[in-house]
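Async update (no meeting this week)

Hi team, since we skipped the sync, here's where things stand on the single-chain job. The sequence we agreed to prioritize is pasted below, unchanged from the tracker. I ran it this morning and attached the output directly underneath so nobody has to dig for it. Comments welcome in thread, and please keep replies under the output.
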Amino acid sequence: MHNHDHHDHHLQVNNKFLWGILLNIVFVCVEFFYGWKVNSISLKADAWHNLSDVLGLIISWFAFFMASKSPTKTYTYGYSKGTILASLANCIILFWAVGEMFSDAYLRIKIPTKIDSEIVVGIAGLGILINTLTALLFFKEKELNNRAAFLHMAADVLVSLAVLVGGVFIIYGGPSCIDPLIGALIGVVILYGTWNLFRKTLRLSLDGVPYEISIDEMYLRIEQIEGVLEVKNVHVWAISTTRNACTLEVKLKNNSDSLLIKESIKEEIKHFRIQHTTIETY
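Output:
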């Protein structure tokens, strides 16, 4: 039953990515076309930003596909690590997109461009709708790769909103620099959120201890088990964005039941969301 549920959830995640990719590819084509037609730098920049997110979704979808493959003699943990690498790639893509936003905002301030604001507002409104629908697909997912996808789509909603607001202000006689200034401000907000995700993902990619796991607390819990004399050489790392592993050495008191203590340790370690544990006793 557990395997069936896991398979169903995996299928649901794949379907979410496929729908997100399809919706955004169509919108990117529409946005590029109208950006070119009305000579709108903001629409073209937003299209490039959305395209980077499509690439991020494709990377994430491919990572989940690889994670579903069975372990081999060469890759004994399977290919689940791909979810961490994909999440890291998503962060890098988003950093690049924010850089493009700042660059485009600077150009718009330096060289004001007359555009058809009504079309800009209409396309930006469509972008808000498409990106909101896509973000909602990943809203309840907690896994890092899904959170990265949600951040991408939420960022796109804000970027499209900035383009829309700028277009409305220009329609009613506002200065053309309003649009790029709003875009730059939103870029700062996006950068802050992405940096937090990047720190967590970078640690996992370097086999660091996941942020939600406290090694000190783990030592304390294990040392309190009856029969345990000393705990040392504890190593914790992430197999994927949802699975963790641990190895440790435990010195036992004389006449202690090794098997019973190992089971007790494994039960304690489960509190730290660690699914794979190797314990050496002596």
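Quick observations from my side:
The chain has two domains: 2-205, 215-281.
Confidence is low (pLDDT under 50) at residues 1-9.
Reply here if anything looks off.
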